[in-house]
Amino acid sequence: MKHKPGSKSAARGDSGGAPAGAGNASARAGNAPAGAASGPAVAIQRVLVLADGRKPSVRELLRKMSTWLEARVKVQVVDDVRAFGELPPEKRGVRPDLVVVLGGDGTILAAVRAFADAPVPTLGINFGRVGFLTSAESAHWQEVLEGILGGKQQLEPRLRLQAELRPRGKAPVKVLALNDIVLTRGAFQGMLELALSAGGRWVTDYRADGLIVATPSGSTAYSLAAGGPVLSPTLEALVVTPICPHSLSHRPIVLEPDGELVLELKRSSGIATLVVDGQGFYPVQQGDAVRFTRHPVPFPLLVQPGLDPYRRLRDRLGWKGSIEGEESVRSGKSLAPPDDGLL
Question: In percent, how much of the chain has pLDDT > 90?
């Protein structure tokens, strides 16, 4: 992990406290209705830039962005977000008012894990292949940051999912996810037999390769690939999606997020795995149970004011065809809005 030499921020060991302004932003996110939340601008004095430094394009922009930010705020630059997340809080430097992440969704998830216990408003700048969690493209980074530092801040509070794995004869393991938590079979195992209950009521038993419990943020990730629906990012809901179920009648279901879900591994020919946001892995044995509940504090992702969530879907998923009517095709004119960079 590399901290930028000459950074204006010094590690003073007070990272455990709430950042100036971030507590207010998180509180607004927690009390916000469905949809992006805006409120009084929070003064941003300290910015942490986290990046996936393995990508040459990221390293190039990192140099430009750090110079630009240092002229305006105190800044700390880290080019290995995963190594940063493994550091104890007291070694991460002073807590920022804003986190800027350069990379794809995996980089965003690593940054979210690093601040899981005390979220900080986070802006994602897309360098990945899809980038559902990012709201800005790399070509427009300066325009976006100028708006945020100038007080044009809009939070999109994202529901998080927490789970407790209760292995037989062992201490419980608690995990937290922004996207999804997946119980999946091993590479050389047969199907798993799983029992799902919601709010104390039995839902069904599955014979499948696994089961995905996803938040709205995660509905466009593994769950979508497994046939699940796309949920609005700030919807108050969870989606349960079976992976290759033996019965064709087992379909994804959308549930209210306030009840407890319990998933029991009834039968397995080996050790299954609980996967948290694709980055945390925990062994699960036959007879173990996993309990899912919503986390009380959503994660405050920043989006650009006027962000069109449907355009983001069109661009990320490559939706075509019906976007342009027959008349526009004949005339050579497009009904799609101009590219203003607000992805």
Answer: 62
In the predicted structure, residue 26 carries a pLDDT above the cut 70: no
Structural tokens at position 271: 């050790």
In angstroms, the Cα distances linking 180 to 131, 187, 210, 213, 242 are: 16, 20, 13, 6, 13
**Residue where a domain stops, chosen among 158, 187, 209:** 158
The residues near 193 (Cβ < 8 Å, ≥ 6 apart) are: 205, 206, 207, 265, 266, 267, 268
Beta strand pairing call for 136-137 and 253-255: unpaired
78 and 139 in a common domain? yes
**Can you state the angle between helices 56-70 and 141-149, rounded to 10 degrees?**
30
Is 105 tagged catalytic?
Answer: yes
Res 11: pLDDT: 36
Residues 200, 133 share a domain = no
Whose CA is closest to 213, among 203, 223, 204?
223
Flag whether pLDDT at 143 surpasses 70: yes
In a shared domain, residues 151 and 180 = no
Answer whether residue 106 is part of any domain. Answer: yes
The domain of 255 spans: 161-294
- What's the structural domain count of the chain? 2
281 and 195 share a domain? Answer: yes
Write down the number of H helices and E strands in the chain: 8, 19
Out of 52, 79, 97, 105, the active site residue is: 105
pLDDT-derived band at 310, boundaries 50, 70, 90: confident
Burial 329-341 (b: 16+ CB within 10 A, else e): eeeeeeeeeeeee
> Is residue 134 located within the same domain as residue 47?
yes
Kindly report, residue by residue over 315-336, the tens digit of the pLDDT.
888 887 554 554 444 445 555 5
Nearest residue to 157 (alpha-carbon basis) of 5, 290, 319, 298 = 298
Residue 313 pLDDT > 90: no
Q: Which of 158, 191, 207 is the last residue of a domain?
A: 158
Do 144 and 223 share a domain, yes or no?
no
